[in-house]
Write a sequence for this structure.
């Protein structure tokens, strides 16, 4: 893979057999011991050093948020003037105009609906892609496709691929963290490393049924004894393991195990500090909406994401879980959902920018698909994988820029279409990885995040 | 082209090829392998850029997989390119730019390709680049060059190998050792020494049973001086029921066993455990491997055996084909079916054949001799197999009832009779009750008037406004803007008290409106005296407003003045909306609503009056589109009613346009025409309106029996008064039956008796398990371009086996009406089949050495590993079949070899020459697998429950285990062997995911053994480890007051050996220092609050913690975690 380190490639290839060498290699790679660059290292210019993915589970409506469609308003109540997709999740009726007003914002003059008044203030930081499309019309398949590139088989998550490619910047924290992820619709498969070494799997903090306030790493510490006492315990363990080790021939697995306790102890020291938001000023808490009931939960997720980004975690995902699925009650529920995330996201964008982090931190906002411009019932929209919007910010993307377009009504991606595979190719390119060269040999085949497809949408690069 | 190949011969060879023979190109290629011709980068370029284009754009007509190769041109291999087509070569290696291929792509000449439209510029640029690079592509294209395939070791017949001679005869315990030693001697490497007895027995115990040896086992073996002491231990462990658990689990990795579907809809497969238990039993009974294989692929197609248990097993075994993860909510149902087939092929061929057939779904296999046609032939067999029970919105997998066909049919026939009887009963009720309903509807006006009087004497209380209590007012989560409800928080005592004031004493019927998804019975007391110990335990299917129903509690006796009604529960309460207290007259015989002294109620059913009164009582308080208007008029004072009614009518008509009142438009229409003269007269208008809606409904249903509602929302709302779930004329069965006419009652009694009789005699529900049957439609599948089912060839490929894998073994013809799975199994099991037995013995070998003789144990193809000891592999494979496919015989052979019994230290000489230990000059040290780790922790702490079989998943079959609210219904507390813990896709137990348990969605041939800080954290802090340490410490403390004996017990329990004197001293020092006050102070007071470690008091507690801290060090040490 990387011409500078051919021997490690071989090592990893051999690792399928599961011997000690893998253990050490995996440990070193996952914890960034090898070098700050990770083992494979970037092969393309590095625009973003880390990624924060703000995942809107359920499928936010593009035509009610960032994809303004005047004709939809004009032709409200009329039938869609072209054919609907072959497979639909549910039956929809005629065109349904957006209940929200759109206005242009910032110097870029991008249209944003009144659902996102706070994000709209940062619109000149956004790189809005309005022509996303995928294939799967059900949540499970679409979530898996978005996170792993495959809606059919279990494949490594994009975060796992990135950590596999780049390693972690922090020796004491996992490289891929997912905050309050959903256990439904693919669950752990959305952050699993599948056939990549297990060290690259996402580390969950709580899950979507746990409030962010209570979410934490599993087994990070024990409550009943002090750290000092545990240290003496580990010292004794070290002594015994060293004796055990000395009676045996060289064995990397034994060495790695001994080292892993030391690393875990350091992680145990570092992680609680990051999880503890009490050191943040009241202004910062307010900025993220943590002082308000409605925005508190996602606000915490966003602030944690910033803190993990600062600490050198490569890929951080925040999940606003399964709220955006408005088959009915679009008006009230989309409004409520947007209110819960709008201020926290604006806070995150502002804060990253103010700290100089936005330039090399890629922020991504989006759901597993969008929604139909046609009505389901009287006040709902169905799933729509055929055309939807995501936006990127920072991390070397072009600010104040819009790319691609859907048709006049926002149903199908029409111009400069960006498939999920293209999105993945672009994501990898932004962090310095060539999606065609980031491969892993499994079951006799070299696998990629982008399967055999994917185009890097370099138009999005600043 | 490499430079040493001269230019001329290429064209010459092409020319020769065109003239009539292709022989000339073969020797040329043999001298010029792809590796020399093209760089790694070139080949990568081809694989990533060019091949996808060829597949997408060219192979439909120009590939060996094409239905008809056009123009004689194939583009599968480099050879093909050089050969060209009927109009000559398509590329010129010496002058790439002039290649006819490029002209055709650029649409420059007459020949334009592809014919149906020029490629986009980017694609053309890629192909130009490819030609410019001199068309690098691997020699092995489709069918790797025939020669290569023909020579590949795995497709050769099993060699009849001779057992080699060795110099050191004495070292060899059986023929395995001769094969191994012969190679070692040739390489000049000596085998490692034999391991000591403790190491050996620990290794063997974990290997064969997944459990550590007990102290008694170790002692017995160390003392046994008999020559066959080792063989005795091997036999003992092979006979242990835990053998099947350990080796069954290894098979379950391959079978991607799981208790839930995973992927998109994570439904519980609550009967899958029967497959798991069968696998365990099959190993324990040493079921011959040929049967083991056949039952899993085709157990349903064998003749029904007389032994019923065997029949159950054969059907259960086919669960192998059903257990895969499925996209149940995929709405393209044909794609769903084809994905299921693909998954089955992948798992079946990787596990039984060591072949990756799945690769050939979209195009011919790149390396192995499997064409897309072969894939499609096999896919036809599985498509002709029923794996899915239905293709509903969220589809369901197939389950088989595990019983003889006759028993299944008998039960089905009985069930049909029962259904028919139930249908008859239902029809009878509908007939009688619709008569009653019609009569009551005709009395609507009287009911309305009677209820108005009745409502005036009742008391309605909003549950969310108690006088005292810890209820939560909820108008968002479970309540709504319109329906505010009362609910409670989590644990502890929850209560609500209502101060109720009555003018006079008397009996009151208490009714409560609430929603309850699960039963949460309450205690109800009045003025401190319990009146109902357990009331309101009913469920309504939901916690939300739509699940609210009225429930009768019973009667209470109130006194004049203030009464305190208290509802309480230890734990969460149902979601309460309203309480209603209705006077019951002392003279009334029937409890419920009073009709005496009610001028309107003389002839009416009291219970219906109740229904109406409750509704009217609500209408007085809330917006009620239908009876809100009535309430307004009913509130007018009796004297001067007409004038009041006139004013009210005018007011209402004034605001009608604005629709501010939220009234049903038809109800508002009642005010049109003549002024309202009296309540009685208005009641008449209501009655006509209800009757009209009812009549409209009857008409609609007559015309359209499946209609579910009236088209007009306003009329539908009125219809629901009569027919809805909560219709005003709705009564429980027990309430309505006494109203039947005598003949109808007799009929009812008799019909019900026959239903009950049939229910009583219905044979017990048959056990079921995931399993397959033959599909209704048995047929081959068409080829699908790029695997796309929307792009099919016209003809279908006949079902069949991938012949190239079977050497010269022919499959039996597949009968027209059968899927062919049985013939597939028989073909695999032909003794001359080169893969089946090799793959199987290699797996057994892998289980004992941590690596197979072929390391890629599920890939024996051209890209897989080559065997380290090919002769040994073949000898074992033949031995396996000679022994009747007995797996235990193979274990016996392997475990009694000297090779197996070597120490695991690496001899210095070998480290350099053979770092991967392919020569087997020592054993391989292995880390405990996730299950063995947990089982060993439980065993060391003395709590392991070794019960065999059964399910620990308490979720209904097909219910969600993890849902979209991220709730996980699986429980993992039982101290059973890890094998029996629920395996939930999408939400694995943290222990499993931390310790490399395989992803249960895919077939896994060998688990990795990674080392991560997550594992260390788990060992340092998880409740499992802390609990085990504490338990182990407790048993040591109990064992003896002598601290040295305690230390010995800890060492023996955890590590299977005594501590030496230095270790003992160190342990005692550690424990003593943990007891010192300053160390003890570091033990926080909140021990046990978050974990489940119990809380002994003070000194005793400090003592126990000190010992537990030490016990933990032993339990997480490398000596515990690794098997030498």
């Amino acid at each position: 893979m990387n011409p500078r380190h051919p021997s490690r490639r071989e090592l990893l290839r051999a690792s399928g057999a599961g011997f000690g060498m893998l253990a050490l290699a995996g440990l070193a790679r996952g914890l960034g011991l090898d070098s700050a660059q990770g083992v494979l290292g970037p092969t393309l210019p590095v625009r973003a050093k880390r990624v924060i993915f703000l995942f809107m589970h359920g499928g936010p409506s593009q035509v009610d948020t960032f994809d303004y469609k005047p004709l939809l308003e004009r032709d409200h109540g009329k039938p869609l003037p072209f054919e609907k997709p072959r497979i639909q999740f549910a039956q929809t009726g005629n065109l349904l105009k957006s209940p929200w007003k759109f206005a242009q914002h910032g110097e870029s003059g991008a249209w944003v609906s009144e659902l996102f008044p706070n994000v709209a203030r940062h619109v000149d930081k956004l790189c809005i892609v309005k022509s996303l499309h995928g294939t799967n019309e059900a949540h499970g398949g679409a979530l898996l496709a978005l996170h792993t590139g495959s809606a059919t088989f279990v494949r490594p998550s994009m975060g796992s691929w990135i950590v596999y490619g780049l390693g972690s910047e922090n020796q004491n924290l996992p490289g891929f963290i997912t905050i309050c992820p959903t256990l439904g619709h693919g669950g752990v498969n959305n952050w699993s490393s599948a056939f990549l070494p297990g060290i690259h799997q996402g580390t969950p903090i709580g899950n979507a049924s746990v409030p962010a306030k209570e979410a934490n790493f599993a087994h990070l510490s024990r409550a009943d004894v002090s750290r000092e006492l545990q240290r003496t315990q580990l010292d004794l363990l070290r002594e015994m393991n060293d004796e055990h080790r000395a009676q045996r021939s060289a064995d990397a697995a034994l060495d790695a195990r001994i080292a892993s306790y030391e690393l875990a102890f350091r992680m145990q020291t570092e992680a609680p500090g990051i999880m503890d938001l009490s050191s943040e000023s009241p202004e910062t808490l307010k900025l993220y909406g943590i002082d308000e009931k409605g925005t508190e939960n996602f606000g915490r997720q966003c602030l944690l994401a910033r803190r993990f980004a600062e600490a050198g975690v490569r890929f951080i995902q925040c999940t606003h879980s399964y709220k955006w699925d408005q088959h009915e009650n679009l008006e009230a529920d989309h409004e409520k959902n947007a209110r819960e995330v709008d201020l926290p996201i604006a806070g995150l964008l502002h804060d990253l920018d103010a700290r100089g982090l936005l330039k090399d931190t890629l922020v991504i906002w989006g759901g597993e698909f969008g929604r139909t411009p046609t009505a389901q019932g009287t006040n709902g929209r169905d799933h729509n994988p055929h055309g939807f919007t995501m936006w990127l910010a920072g991390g070397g993307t072009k600010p104040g820029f819009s790319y691609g377009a859907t048709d006049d009504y926002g149903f199908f991606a029409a111009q400069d279409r960006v498939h999920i595979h293209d999105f993945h190719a672009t994501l990898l390119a932004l962090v310095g990885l060539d999606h065609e060269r980031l491969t892993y040999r499994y079951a006799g085949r070299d696998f990629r995040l982008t399967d055999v497809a994917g185009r890097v949408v370099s138009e999005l690069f600043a | 082209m490499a430079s040493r190949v001269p230019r001329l011969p290429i064209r010459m060879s092409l020319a020769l090829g065109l003239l009539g023979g292709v022989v000339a190109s073969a020797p040329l290629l043999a001298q010029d392998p792809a590796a020399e011709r093209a760089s790694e980068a070139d080949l990568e370029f081809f694989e990533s850029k060019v091949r996808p284009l060829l597949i997408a754009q060219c192979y439909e007509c120009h590939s060996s997989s094409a239905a008809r190769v056009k123009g004689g041109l194939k583009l599968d291999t480099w050879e093909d390119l050089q050969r060209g087509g009927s109009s000559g070569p398509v590329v010129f290696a010496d002058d790439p730019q002039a290649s006819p291929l490029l002209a055709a792509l650029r649409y420059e000449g007459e020949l334009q390709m592809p014919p149906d439209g020029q490629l986009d510029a980017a694609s053309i640029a890629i192909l130009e680049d490819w030609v410019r690079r001199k068309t690098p592509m691997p020699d092995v294209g489709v069918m790797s060059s025939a020669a290569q395939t023909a020579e590949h070791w795995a497709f050769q017949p099993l060699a009849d190998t001779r057992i080699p001679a060795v110099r050191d005869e004495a070292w060899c315990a059986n023929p395995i050792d001769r094969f191994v030693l012969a190679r070692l001697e040739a390489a000049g490497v000596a085998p490692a020494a034999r391991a000591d007895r403790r190491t050996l027995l620990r290794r063997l115990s974990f290997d064969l049973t997944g459990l550590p040896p007990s102290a008694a086992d170790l002692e017995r073996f160390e003392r046994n001086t008999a020559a066959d002491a080792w063989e005795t231990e091997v036999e003992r462990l092979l006979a242990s029921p835990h053998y099947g658990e350990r080796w069954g689990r290894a098979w379950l990795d391959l079978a991607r066993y799981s208790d839930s579907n995973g992927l998109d809809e994570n439904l519980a497969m609550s009967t899958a455990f029967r497959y798991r238990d069968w696998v365990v039993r099959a190993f324990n009974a040493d079921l011959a491997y040929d049967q083991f294989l056949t039952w899993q692929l085709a157990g349903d197609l064998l003749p029904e055996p007389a032994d019923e248990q065997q029949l159950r097993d054969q059907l259960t075994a086919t669960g192998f084909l059903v257990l895969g993860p499925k996209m149940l909510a995929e709405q393209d149902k044909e794609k769903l079916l084809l994905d299921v087939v693909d998954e089955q092929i992948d798992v079946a061929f990787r596990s039984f054949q060591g072949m990756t057939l799945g690769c050939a779904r979209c195009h011919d296999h790149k390396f192995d001799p499997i064409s897309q046609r072969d894939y499609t032939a096999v896919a036809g067999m599985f498509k002709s197999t029923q794996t899915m029970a239905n293709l509903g919105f969220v589809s369901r997998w197939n389950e088989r009832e595990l019983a003889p066909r006759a028993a299944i049919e008998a039960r089905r026939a009985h069930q049909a009779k029962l259904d028919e009887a139930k249908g008859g009963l239902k029809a009878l009720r509908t007939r009688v009750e619709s008569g009653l309903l019609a009569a009551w509807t005709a009395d609507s006006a009287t009911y309305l008037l009677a209820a108005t009087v009745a409502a005036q004497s009742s008391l309605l209380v909003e549950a969310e406004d108690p006088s005292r209590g810890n209820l939560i007012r909820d108008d968002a989560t479970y309540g709504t803007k319109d329906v505010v409800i009362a609910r409670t928080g989590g644990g502890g005592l929850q209560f609500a008290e209502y101060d109720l004031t009555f003018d006079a004493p008397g009996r009151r019927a208490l009714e409560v409106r609430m929603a309850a998804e699960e039963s949460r019975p309450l205690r109800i007391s009045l003025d401190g005296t319990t009146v109902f110990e357990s009331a309101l335990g009913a469920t309504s299917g939901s916690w939300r407003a739509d699940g609210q129903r009225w429930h009768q509690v019973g009667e209470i006796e109130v006194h004049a003045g203030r009464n305190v009604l208290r509802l309480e529960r230890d734990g969460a309460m149902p979601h309460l909306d309203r309480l209603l207290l209705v006077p019951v007259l002392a003279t009334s015989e029937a409890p419920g609503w009073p009709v005496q002294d009610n001028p309107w109620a003389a002839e009416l059913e009291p219970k219906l009056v109740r229904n109406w009164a409750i509704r009217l009582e609500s209408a007085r308080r809330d917006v009620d589109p239908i009876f809100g208007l009535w309430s307004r008029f009913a509130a007018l004072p009796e004297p001067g009613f007409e004038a009041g009614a006139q004013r009210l009518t005018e007011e209402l008509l004034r605001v009608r346009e604005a629709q501010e009142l939220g009234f049903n438009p038809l109800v508002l229409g009642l005010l049109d025409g003549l002024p309202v003269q009296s309540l009685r007269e208005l009641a008449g208008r209501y009655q006509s309106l209800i009757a009209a809606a009812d009549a409209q409904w009857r008409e609609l249903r007559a015309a359209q029996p499946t209609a579910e509602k009236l088209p007009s929302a306003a009329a539908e709302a009125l219809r629901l008064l009569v027919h809805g779930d909560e219709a005003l004329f709705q009564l429980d069965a027990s309430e309505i039956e006494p109203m039947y006419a005598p003949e109808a009652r007799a009929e009812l009694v008799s019909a019900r008796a026959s239903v009950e009789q049939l229910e009583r005699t219905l044979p017990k529900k048959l056990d079921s398990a995931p399993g397959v049957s033959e599909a209704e439609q048995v047929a081959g599948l068409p080829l699908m371009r790029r695997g796309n089912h929307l792009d099919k060839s016209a003809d279908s490929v006949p079902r069949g086996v991938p012949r190239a894998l079977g050497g010269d073994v022919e499959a039996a013809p597949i009968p027209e009406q059968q899927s062919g799975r049985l013939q597939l199994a028989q073909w695999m099991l032909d003794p001359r089949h080169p893969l089946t037995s090799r793959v199987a013995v290699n797996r057994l070998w892998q289980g004992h050495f941590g690596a197979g003789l072929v390391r890629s144990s599920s890939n024996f193809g051209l890209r897989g590993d080559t065997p380290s000891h090919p002769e040994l592999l073949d000898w074992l494979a033949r031995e396996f079949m000679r022994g009747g496919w007995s797996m235990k015989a193979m274990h016996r052979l392997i475990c009694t070899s000297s090779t197996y019994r070597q120490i695991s230290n690496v001899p210095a000489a070998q480290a350099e020459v053979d770092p991967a230990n392919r020569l087997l000059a020592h054993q391989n040290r292995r880390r405990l697998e996730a299950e063995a780790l947990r089982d060993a922790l439980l065993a060391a702490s003395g709590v392991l429950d070794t019960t065999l079989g059964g399910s620990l998943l308490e979720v209904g079959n097909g219910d969600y285990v993890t849902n979209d609210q991220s709730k996980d219904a699986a429980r993992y507390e039982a101290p059973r062997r890890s094998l029996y813990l629920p395996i939930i896709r999408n939400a694995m137990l943290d222990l499993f995911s931390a310790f490399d348990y395989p992803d249960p969605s895919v077939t896994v041939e060998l688990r990795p053994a990674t080392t991560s800080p997550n594992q260390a954290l788990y060992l340092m802090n998880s409740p499992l480890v802390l609990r085990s340490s504490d338990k182990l410490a407790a048993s040591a403390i109990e064992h003896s007051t002598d601290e040295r004996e305690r230390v010995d017990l800890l060492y023996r329990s955890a590590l299977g050996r005594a501590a030496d004197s230095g270790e003992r001293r160190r342990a005692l020092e550690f424990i003593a220092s943990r007891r010192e006050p300053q160390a003890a102070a570091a033990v926080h007071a909140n021990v046990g609050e978050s974990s489940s470690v119990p809380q002994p008091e003070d000194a005793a507690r400090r003592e126990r913690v000190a010992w537990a801290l030490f016990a933990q060090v032993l339990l997480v040490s490398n000596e515990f975690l690794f098997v030498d």
Summary: Chain B touches chain A through 105 residues (CB under 8 Å). Chain B has 43 helices and 21 strands.
